[in-house]
Request: fold
Amino acid sequence: RKPFLASPLPSAAEAPNFNVNVSHEGSWVVCAAEPYCVTGIDVAELRRFDKKGQPIDFHKSFREQLTEAEWADVRSAGDDLDAQYEVFSRYWSAKEAFVKARGDGLAFALGDVEFRWEPLEGFPERSAFRGTAIVQGKPRPTWSFVQHRMPGEKPHWTTVARAPASDIVDAHGEFTKTLRTRSFSEAQWSAALHAPSPPCKVVPVAALVPSDDVEGYVLSGGSRQA
Reply:
């Protein structure tokens, strides 16, 4: 089931299809919200390790999850496995964002969706991309994807997906009931799909703790916000 906000919702005039999605990995928790499109977000770390602290063999473990074209892009990073894994993590983040926007999660075969990328203008080289999806060999022009490399010593990749309500898998119909506008003109949908998708605004965890709970947060090991 796709998590969703049932109430209170913003006004229909301001955000008729308001919905949110959350992801976490490593030291990051990321959140995306959309007023018109259905959204999915995922954050992926640059290298995964097994329980013994050894880097995983991602070529073997995830062989079926990427297409041949995507694996070719991974290998184009050169012989360095860390460099290859960074490219892999971009694809993994995109596939997770895709299935989270759809609502069926890993019930969808990740190898059935392929991504194509182009640099996002106005950002440093190889730090942001805009993407499109091909699902089972068919382009999906009503979807869009934006990726940003997160800041920090161990940066992660975050992907935000924008999707039409018609592609959502919602067996119980609970999430789709919160979407108050289903019909868009081609111009309206294009504007919503390609609206700016800025990098995540970074805030410390302490900034999200309600004022009444700050003392308990500090006692549990958190740092008080400056």
